[in-house]
């Protein structure tokens, strides 16, 4: 989430402008931990989200998150 925050900051935006996220998890035992951490970045306004269980991720990661962000006109 901190890496995503850096990307958003660099683009001149923030989590406030996120309209959708996709989270890919290799192990759903971490779902609640990820959910709690994720929610802490959105100040009580959660964008729509899809969470998908996968067999593996690039670089042997456990979690991958992508964002769709509204940047205005």
From TrEMBL:
One of its GO terms (molecular function) is deaminase activity. GO terms for cellular component: cytosol. CDD domains: YjgF_YER057c_UK114_family (cd00448). SUPFAM superfamilies: YjgF-like (SSF55298). This is Putative translation initiation inhibitor, yjgF family.
């Amino acid at each position: 989430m901190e890496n995503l925050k850096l990307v958003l900051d660099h683009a001149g935006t923030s989590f406030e402008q996120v309209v959708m996220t996709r989270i890919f998890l290799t192990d759903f035992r971490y779902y609640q931990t990820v959910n709690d951490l994720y929610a802490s970045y959105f100040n009580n306004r959660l964008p729509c989200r899809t969470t998908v269980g996968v067999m593996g991720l690039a670089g042997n990661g456990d979690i991958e998150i992508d964002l769709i962000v509204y940047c205005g006109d």
